[in-house]
Amino acid sequence: MKTKIDLTTLSIEKAIVHDIPKHKKNDFSVAPTFSQQESELTTELKLFFKDSISRALGRDRAFNICYDSSSDSPINNYVDLMIDNDDSFVNKSKDIGQHLYNVQKGNNASGILFILKCLLSNNSVCIIMKLERDGGAQLTLNPITKSFDIEQVENLMLTEKTKLFKISLLLNRDEFGFDFDGYIMDYQINSKQRKELSSFFVYDFLGCRPYDDPKVTTQRFYNLTRTFIQTTVQDKIDQATYIQHLNSYLQKNSTQLNPKEFSDDYFKNSFFQDEYKAFLETKNFDYKTFNKDLALVNSKIKKFTVAFQNGIMILGNQGSFEDNVDLLELPNGNHQAIIESKIRKVD
């Protein structure tokens, strides 16, 4: 699966602006103001917003997101309809604005909701931006069109009376060959901690969750499982055996991994199985199947090392170590390694 897309191919087709006020939870005395038609787009405006979007989503702090099946947010359906049907753009953009207003609470800032329908690599995508503004920056409704002019958004951004606060690009994953549903840049989120932080815009509004990159998830599974084995399993020979099992498990002919499957197949008693599950839960690692990508652990799982306190170290390939080295515990508590092979070289 691909995870990146060329934002230089972005082409803005439609745009609309809505005003979403701040309000306390369950206080609906002040209502959103919705534009009644699309904003007019000049070539200069298209280039300005394309550059702003590309710079935001191109930052290191931007990350991929997936729709969360457990969320009751309607954004997924609204975006799909907007992507598939040009005629639904204005009405669905209002629905998106109403949903944002409905889920906001007293601590959520008022802002400008800016929605665009774009082409990206010749496929339709939807961009949803929320721009927080200071108290003195107001939108003015055009009395003729009953809509907000897009130039006001540009002017506010250029004069820094508002800032690009949150931006999401949502797409049809099947058309792009992705296993995620879009990108997000939220300036309130620390990308290094995004799995631990809650984001109103991502979770409550968009109904999404951070995408689990298979490379990173596989590496995290490997590192956490090794840590569990080394800290919980006291018997050194059992430690060595379980780590060899872990290396073998990651190299098996399968595109997916599952912590429960590993635990059930390799841990020899229910105590370790229960402790392992509890350990992963404390580390916020889901106890379920995920896609495998060995890119970040490949060099580690193909080698196996046993270091002794007397300074002797045995290093071998995963398969050859299992087949040719016997580890034994002696009555005095020491360990013995028996290697049966011809000597190839002495340095």
Briefly, what is this?
The chain is α+β, with helices and mostly antiparallel strands. It has helices at 43-57, 75-84, 89-103, 150-158, 173-176, 200-205, 214-232, 236-251, 259-266, 270-282, 298-301, 318-324; strands at 11-20, 33-34, 63-67, 111-120, 123-133, 141-142, 147-148, 162-170, 182-186, 208-210, 256-257, 290-291, 303-307, 313-317, 325-329, 335-339.
Overview of this protein structure:
By secondary structure, the protein is of the alpha+beta class. The chain is built from 12 helices and 16 strands. The strands form 5 sheets. It has an 8-stranded antiparallel β-sheet with strand order 2-1-4-5-8-9-3-10, sandwiched between helices. It has a two-stranded antiparallel sheet with strand order 6-7. Strands 11-12 form a two-stranded antiparallel sheet. α2 (75-84) runs antiparallel to α3 and α9 packs antiparallel against α10. The model is unreliable at 191-198 (pLDDT under 50).
